[in-house]
Amino acid sequence: MATSVWKGYLTFGLISIPIRLFSAGRSERIGLNQLHSVCNSRIRMPLYCPTCDRKVERSEIVKGYEYDKDQYVLFKEEELDKIEPESARSMEILEFVKIDEIDPLYYDSSYYMTPEEAGEKAYQLLLKAMEQSGYAAIAKLSMHQREHIVVIRPRAKGLTLHTMFYTNEIRQVAEYGRTETVQPKEQEQKLAMQLIESLAAPFQPEKYRDEYRERMLALIAAKQQGQEIAEAPHPQLAPVIDLMAALKKSLAEKPAAPTKKPPLRVVPAATQTQKRSKRSAG
Predict the structure, then answer these.
(1) How far apart are CA 149 and CA 165, in angstroms?
(2) Which of 73, 123, 144, 181 has the smallest count of CB within 10 Å of its CB?
(3) Buried b vs exposed e over 78-104: b needs ≥16 C-beta within 10 Å?
(4) CATH number of the domain that 145 lies in?
(5) pLDDT class for 252, splitting at 50, 70, 90?
(6) CB burial readout 190-210, b (16+ within 10 A) else e
(7) Is 248 found in the same domain as 122?
């Protein structure tokens, strides 16, 4: 059974819906540990105090805010609990907005919202109303010692919640959007539109795979068997000089389906060594 990350109430006017939040996704990464090259032992990071010159137990650790160099305001867990806002236990819907008005740049993490048994009817009522109206809800939620602004929207017969960045957390990059001085020609624009339309397809996320992860797994399996992986070819790319020619060539060579990268080729270690020797001799 999945473990919920938050439990509390979703409030809508005078209606309170007991709910739980579950993480909707997680990154699948292959973790590589740091090892000592001499003995292949895993490197550890002990909790260490340079002043006392000794390791520190977790029970000795307190939290502190550095307000000046090496000057801290200290906190106990009970003190932090005292300042928890109401949003730590309940989410009040502040307003409803059209979902297409929200810039996806603000989205952070996604969660499934499920009702407790006592709140199923009210949950369904809110879900149906939001589906029919086309609105999403904006609320506040505190978890993991932070208050988040969140958007709640209907999806696949349920409500999903997305934590969002605050406006001050959206970074500004001076170079972004500064291309108005360069204008493409009308014919170039038409060919670009044709290229886009020729590559248009329904969004099917199951078609896409993490090829780097697959290649890493293949490399792990090969090395366990004492083999090596042949280097994958990479095309040599350069800036486009003749935009019209590149667009026409792209349309002419457009593949019928997304190109699949070749699978990794396993090469016995002995063969690989022989190839290196020949290259060195040459």
Answers:
(1) 7
(2) 181
(3) eeeeeeeeebbebbbbeebeeeeebee
(4) 2.40.290.10
(5) confident
(6) ebeeebeeeeeeeeeeeeeee
(7) no
* Residue 137 in domain: yes
131 and 252 in a single domain? The answer is: no
Percent helix, percent strand, percent coil in the chain, to nearest 5: 35, 30, 40
Count of positions (residues) in the chain: 282
Which DSSP helix (H) or strand (E) runs through 114?
strand 107-115
H or E, element range at 75: strand 71-75
Kindly report whether the global pTM for this prediction surpasses the value 0.85: no
Instruction: With cut-offs at 50, 70 and 90, classify the pLDDT of residue 204.
Output: confident
Contact, 19 vs 10, CB < 8 A? yes
Q: Which domain holds residue 120?
A: 6-26+83-169
Distances (CA, A) of 61 to 91, 112, 145, 151: 32, 34, 17, 36
For residue range 144-156, list pLDDT tens digits in order.
878 899 999 999 9
Q: What is the pLDDT of residues 18-69, one digit of tens each?
A: 999 998 887 777 777 888 788 888 888 788 888 888 888 888 888 888 888 8
